[in-house]
Amino acid sequence: MSLDTWQSLTSMFYEQAAKYGDKGLLYTKKEGAWRGLSWREVAEQVTKLAAGLEKLGIEAGDRVVLVSENRPEWMIADFAIMSIGAITVPTYVTNTERDHLHILENSRAKAGIISNNALARTFLMAAHQSDCMLHAVTMDEFVIEQKLNVDVHHWDKIVGDEEADIAGYANRVLTVRRDDIACLIYTSGTGGLPKGVMLHHGSIMRNGMGASSMIEHLGLENNSFLSFLPLSHAYEHTAGQCWPIGIGGEIWYAESIEKLAANMEDVRPTVMVVVPRLFEMLRTRITRAVQKEGGMKAKMFDRCLALGFKKHRDGQKFTVFEKLEDIFLGLTVRRKVQRQFGGRLKALVSGGAPLSPDVGFFFWSLGLPLLQGYGQTEAGPVISANPPQSARMHTVGKIFDGVEAKIADDGELLIRGELVMKGYWADDAATAATIVDGWLHTGDIGIIDEDGYLEITDRKKDLIVNDKGDNISPQRIEGMLALEEEIAQVMVYGDRRPYLVGLVVPDADWMKEWCRENGKTRSLKELQEDPAFKKALSKAVGRINDRLANLEKVRRFAIADEPFSIENELLTPTLKVRRHFVKKKYGGILSGLY
């Protein structure tokens, strides 16, 4: 059996567990050492939890919310829920009480599974207000001294009282079909309240088929995945969890984003699912470290990049001398950088937001294949990706086999196929507006070339329309500005206005260095009105303005009070700017720039 013939994610899992048995599947670091669970041990825990949930009254079709950081229990809970025909509802660990309550009320979830005590407190505040929630299961022990409207149970107690019936559940899940709902994944809410995307088993497995075909020639056996993006996001859920299970890979859970570099050296992953912002930051840090060191090492690094850009970006052939140079730099500069990423990487697959081609060429030049893909939650989520043997960095890759794609008269990309969602939960109007005659209206403007490569040129709904009626893509301008060393984050503003303005968050490392050189305070709020500081930032904005058309130039800008973050709700959990939240907080300041 394979991803194109399995009838469900659960039948896939149980068959793979029987095949791989005592081979390692899930790994996590505890007390300074990596510890693993075999396929058989995971299957035992999945079936024990499934039986425990059934004793609590969870039935096929019920929704169960899952709130946890990435850890083995996340995957175990997900497949236990699906094993009884229930529907997993993943939510972000950064959700507020209000966020949780919206999802609980919208999904009418009957139970929740939560990891640590801090998350449990926030979640239970919402659960206590919900009239549909009956049970909460906490992975870590949670002490509660007063009765709530929801019964709280401990994971170990639920699992410990049950027998592992792997054969029984493996037989039961054979009745599940590819078009049955597997999970409700809520959109990140960049443009309003999150909507529950109904993803079916076939959608996720179709994604896995596309991913497999992309790296097939690199080898689908013996792959190790390092999981660090939130599993509550469709991208990591599909590409970082379900796909590895489908190809018999190992999943290693990173300790944190701060320890990612150390974890990469430990785990030596072969595949990583990444977002562009991470590699934009890594590029800046690597470049600064090399420049600071200076000397021959910096010259070798710069030459390595120059040759890489000549080969990968410009498509030019090397002279005999350049070939020798390239071999030498591969054994020195590239090998050193590759070791920092573990030394075994086959592919870094970037998605979730547009990747600057220059960032891609930077890592390709260092021997790290950074492959841009494209998708959205409503498509499970991956629609296209660049194959490593023939990547085109100005595109988001080739559209996956088995996916129909066309460009509408207004330029919008339309998608049809098994990967398309069943619709939005309890929202027929939004579903009807998004899926028309089976075609998913992506909201993105694109071009498909004769080889099936897709280029996304604009976001249909995110365009700024100035007072003259010109359409302007803010994301393109923001991406260019955020690649300047002085700027960490930026939002461009100007709908129905005569020109564009921006809100800028300075880069923390650059700001620290500027303050040291100029004898200034390091407080962002105190620097906001400092003329010299603003002039330094203006130089970065000016450099980008020189490369933009007149209507795209950012004429004036203000400095934000603090960085955009998940905690202050100005970023989604996938690091996208929540424009409506930023406008709400800084609307007066932005309007004052006119």
Arithmetic mean pLDDT: 92
Terminal residue distance = 62 Å
Q: Care to count the β-strands?
A: 27
| Spatial ordering of strands, largest sheet | 4-3-5-6-7
* Radius of gyration (Å): 25 Å
- By DSSP (H or I, 4+ residues per run), the number of helices equals 20
Tell me what the CATH architecture of the largest domain is. 3-Layer(aba) Sandwich
**Helix proportion:** 25-40%
The largest sheet, given as strand count, sense and whether it forms a barrel, is: 5 strands, parallel
CATH topology of the largest domain: Rossmann fold
Number of domains: 3
Topology overview:
Layout: H1 9-20, E1 24-30, E2 33-38, H2 39-55, E3 63-67, H3 72-83, E4 87-91, H4 97-107, E5 111-114, H5 117-127, E6 135-138, E7 151-154, H6 155-160, H7 166-172, E8 181-186, E9 196-200, H8 201-215, E10 224-227, H9 234-246, E11 250-253, H10 260-267, E12 271-274, H11 276-293, H12 295-312, H13 320-340, E13 347-350, H14 357-365, E14 370-375, E15 382-385, E16 398-399, E17 404-407, E18 412-416, E19 423-424, H15 428-434, E20 435-436, E21 439-448, E22 454-459, E23 464-465, E24 471-472, H16 474-482, E25 487-493, E26 500-506, H17 508-518, H18 524-527, H19 531-545, E27 554-559, H20 579-591
Parallel strand pairs: 1-11, 3-4, 3-5, 5-6, 6-7, 10-11, 12-13, 13-14, 26-27
Antiparallel strand pairs: 1-2, 8-9, 9-19, 14-15, 15-16, 17-18, 18-21, 20-21, 21-22, 23-24, 25-26
